[in-house]
Each structure stands twice: as structure tokens, then as C-alpha cells.
Amino acid sequence: MVSARDSEIGAISALGPTDQPPESKYERLIARAKGISAAKTVVVHPCDETSLRGVTQAASAGLIVPILVGPRAKITAVADAHKFDIAAFEVIDAAHSEAAATKAVALIREGKGELLMKGSLHTDELMRAVTTSATGLRTERRISHVFVMDVPRYAETLFLTDAAINIFPDLDAKQDIVQNAIDLFTQVGLGTPRVAILSAVETITPKIPSTIDAAALCKMADRGQIKGGILDGPLAFDNAIDPEAARIKGIRSEVAGKAQILVVPDLEAGNMLAKNLVYLSNADSAGIVLGARVPIVLTSRADSVRSRLASCAAAVLYADARRKSTTVPAA
Questions:
Q1: Is pLDDT above 60 for 2?
Q2: How far is 291 from 177, CA to CA, in rounded Å?
């Protein structure tokens, strides 16, 4: 007889390396984005080889129309050194990274771009400009980050939130975190998501506050305070993604064993889970920030070309959905 522990080990092993063909979840996402109009994208301080390469590749793929904001001489020097053709791109001069972030946010406020993309500056520097109360891009929605993950041997495109912005979110913040992820999932054309609210255990336990939050979030969805997804929680990681683990625990729901969105209790848990999937399971991770006036493509220097294109594709699809419907919530 298979024990719950054996099932948990099996669930994690199932996420390991595979000989999956290159044509997979990200390729389908990118192909869908290529079928719509490119999004005008304000790129902040693309002053190194990695960030400028990502911009040129996304533009060549027909995903974005870049506006580069940063020190003109530095951007041109990087392009010349690596033979990137940026002749068709608009370049707006800004003295340094902080000035570039401020100018880029101002351009978005003026309606000059549909997306914001991080270049070679620090994430904190960009987000300070985004979140400044008087001149930033805040909305009534809490800003949060969503990893869009392509995990080998897991059938679903896996969304993971929030592992980058909100450190210890309270229930109000978690409501927005969940809604942001659902909105992204639906607007990129993936349908109605199955949302697992994660904790260490699948039972409601007063000594573990995240289980109480999970139960409250599910009830909020029942009452229409969270819309567009099917929620269940608390769920432990194994019974959120492995049907056998859910069966052994006697969990019967539309979400258990086949989750598409994983909502973590806090940033520490999310960051460790995301890196576990990347480094031990050969997953690719794209990243989008939502809750601001426009989606923000938040890439890392360690991201692969495929991950960078997938980040752009997800943001472009979301922006396109906003073009088409005035009822889509603000990003």
C-alpha cells in the first residue's frame, strides 16, 4: 500500500527533468501573443547585454514595440558591442537608472505605453518609481507578482504568487493577490483557473494562521468577493498538484491534485518554492507584476531567452484583453 509520504515523494519526483519536446507551454503562449498587435512597451534602463538582447528578441518576434529609456550613449554602446540593431527603436535619454525609472513611469501616465519592462536596474529602484503615491502607477488593487512557470511533466501551466513583492501579506492583500493571478490567467486565454491556497497542511488549524486565511479566501470566492476562479484551501503542496496524494488524504475537490494557480502564504515560502522548481525540476519561470496601471515585465538576469519571451507574451496578451474590454479590471 502506498503511504502518504511515498505519494509526496512521487509528486515531487514527477516534477523532475524530462525529455519533453521543445514545443511546450511557453511556445503555445508565445504563438498566441504573436497573433495579436504588438504592445508599445517602455523599457527602463536596458544598459547591459542581457536586458537589451531580451528587448530585441521580443521586438523581432513581433511581441513589443520598444521605447528605450536610459543613458543614450550607454544603450548605443551596448547595442554596438553586441551587434544589436536598435535603429528602429525610440530612445529617450535619461542620465541614470533612477531618472530612467521616473521618466518611464511618467511616459506610462501620459499614455505613451501599454507595458513597462525592467532593464538592468535593480527591481527595488523600478518599484519605488512605480509605487510612489503622487507620481507612480498605483491603483486601488494591491500590486503583486505572478510567476508563470513551465514545469516539465506537469500538465498545466503553473502560476505561482506572490513570491517577489508582498513579504507577509494580510488577508486583504491576499484577496488582491489571488484576484490579480486569476485575472492574468483568464486574460491570457487559459480559461477558468483552479486555485490552490497553500499551507503546510490541508486542515484548518488555528496554530497555523495561513490555514485560516485559506479558508477565508475560499469563502470570499463563494460570496463573490473573488471572481473568475475555482478556489480550494488550505492545501499542502503535494495534494495541490498530485492526484494520488489528494486521494490518499481523502480530499475531494475540483482543485486538489490539479491546481493551476498556487497561492503561497508569504514571500519566503513562494521564493523557495519557485527556486526549487527552477533548480531541481528544470522549470522555466516568466514573471509579471500586476495591480499597477499597466502590467510590468519583471525579468531576471538569470532568465532564459524563452522565459523572457514568455514574460512579454503573457503581458502582451493581458494588455490586448484590456484593449478589447472596458470591463477588464485595471492591471
A1: no
A2: 9
